Amino acid sequence: MKILIADDSKVMRQIVTRTLRQAGFDGHDVVEAVDGADAFEKVKSESPDLVLSDWNMPNMTGIELLAQLRSTGSKVNFGFVTSETSQEMRDRAESSGALFLIAKPFTPEAFREALEPVIK
Amino acid sequence: MSSIKTIPSEKTVRDALTGLLFRNCDLVLGGQVVHSATELATTAEYVDGIGTAAIIVADLSFSAYAGAAIGLVPKGGADDCIDEKQLFPNVKENFDEVLNVLASMFNNPGQPAVRLHKTYGLRELPPNDTLQMSRQTGRRLDLVVDIQGYGKGGISIVLI
């Protein structure tokens, strides 16, 4: 399957990719986006099966990205990987249609637990 | 005083760094890390929606080793940064991300969210009020961190 990783930090995109591998999710296509706006375009052009997105990004935040995707009819699987871990943020993520929220710093186990129901 | 109730414990700091850098980080209490014209350090300012909530000051060694470790830059690259008294752009960018994620240490249920507001690089002195806050006594934790495979550096965590 194809996974889109949206984060404005290059090193964090690398870490998410590495952690996917360590969590046992190897062999998937990974596409990177540098912010929410870039991710929105890449969801259209790349048709990923899953989006893993940071929350705070320039140009378009992760929650704005999710809202825009849903408003345009996209039902792509979507999860947050973010330092925003308050209950308020978790509630907003869930009510907006996110499947999960993984808190930074994260472990391969956290990835496995969140992604196993999604990644086949 | 900021909305943060208690200074992160040594275990919280160790777990955050170990989880972020994917390698063991041993830490012991150390001296106050100072950022000045002659003492190179990175200063990070965290806000809680009202004002400055916390400050982290990291010395050159910690900045270089943590910035290298998170991006799997070899130890030699970090040692070069220390020898040349500068952070190479990729190491600096990586270390800024370390400081960004460390905001998680300050966040607790029921309290306002704390986030990284700004970082000041090695030769970029913060404003005087930020410097003064970073040197206050009281709610602070001064540590020497040994990042497995890299080396030791100092870090000070100050609650405002």
From TrEMBL, chain A:
Q: Which GO terms describe its biological process?
A: phosphorelay signal transduction system
Q: Pfam families, from UniProt? A: Response_reg (PF00072)
Q: Which residues carry this modification: 4-aspartylphosphate?
A: 54
Phosphoprotein keyword on record: yes
UniProt keyword annotations, A-Z: Phosphoprotein
| Positions of the Response regulatory domain | 2-119
In terms of PANTHER family, this protein maps to: TWO-COMPONENT RESPONSE REGULATOR, TWO-COMPONENT RESPONSE REGULATOR ARR22
Protein name from the UniProt record: Two-component system chemotaxis response regulator CheY
Question: Which species expresses this protein natively?
Answer: Motilibacter rhizosphaerae
Automatic annotation (TrEMBL), chain B:
Q: Which domain of life is it from?
A: Bacteria
Name-wise, this protein is Uncharacterized protein
